[in-house]
Amino acid sequence: MLRTEDGGYLWQTCAIPPGAEKLDFRGVQAFDENTAIVMSSGPGDQSRLYKTTDGCQTWKLIFTNPDKDGFWDSIRFDFLPKKRQSNDHRSGVLVGDPVNGQFAVYTTQNGGDSWEIWAKDDEVNAYKRLGPINANTRESLFAASNSVVVTLRPNEIRFITGGEGGSRLFSAEPHNPFDNETKFKFTVTKLPFSSNKSSGAFSIASRQTQPYKDDLMVVGGNYESPDSVGACAYLPHRENNSLGGVVFFGSERQRVISSTTPPHGYRSAVAWDADQKLWITVGPNGTDISNDDGKNWRPLTPSPTDPEDTDKNWNALSLPFVVGPHGRIGRLRTIDQKAAVTKKP
């Protein structure tokens, strides 16, 4: 693990959490210059969360997967406006592969210090009352880029699936308060991705256009065939109803729009660049951008002054940074007709 305080010019080596030398760390969420949570992925108790409050000099184990058959895939926090949050009150979500036929979803309301599984029916805490999160046979999540889940607002999450059981979008949304039904339910939208053990939806990103209006972009493909044509689906926001601007599940069907020109290979991560007003997606064989909401993707190629592989061998995005295998780190620069991701040592 590495840490930077100057935008990526210099990198410091972090301490390794005690007993975690052989764990596979897939996710990180930084809150400020000193506070962060990292997630390891693996079967059973190899899925863990560690937290630092001193700039990664020391770590505290805060949560271990309680399911021996479980496997964690992604962690995400929602940052509220400063006037509504403190360092101790941040909501987050953690998702994992199915256990006993249901996806594992955990939430925190205190910056990750404690976690609770979202109950199917909790009469004590009504806001947590949820419908079941049932998985298809051989349906799973992919942990390649820590980006199979997004939080649009506190407790309003979206996560994507893949594998032989097919690719779907799960959306936890509030129910109409006047029908006295379960407070939250997961609605399901089928995604047009191929289905096998190495294929499906790998990454989801959101873009808020207006309050309570969020567009989604999903990318993926087949990680065992990275040069095959990639997969992409754009899901524009649904119109709000009249009850406070909130979209209640079932109020409008989610549209799914496939690309005319998809990404040029398997893609494991996607993000919205708000400064440059474009979507960017990365994978082992290249980088693509779209400025028409995923209808057409065009590849980025290195400029004459870049290393020839500057566009390739990337796994995950956290703009402006991009990371790849073997400690590879890059920083996105302003894109023009010959733009490329600039590689950093």
From TrEMBL:
Domain of life of the source: Bacteria
**Gene3D superfamilies under this entry?**
YVTN repeat-like/Quinoprotein amine dehydrogenase
Q: Do you know which InterPro entries this protein is assigned to?
A: WD40/YVTN_repeat-like_dom_sf
Query: Which portions of the sequence form the region Disordered?
Result: 285-313
PANTHER family, sorted: PHOTOSYSTEM II STABILITY/ASSEMBLY FACTOR HCF136, CHLOROPLASTIC, PHOTOSYSTEM II STABILITY_ASSEMBLY FACTOR HCF136, CHLOROPLASTIC
Name the record gives this protein? Glycosyl hydrolase
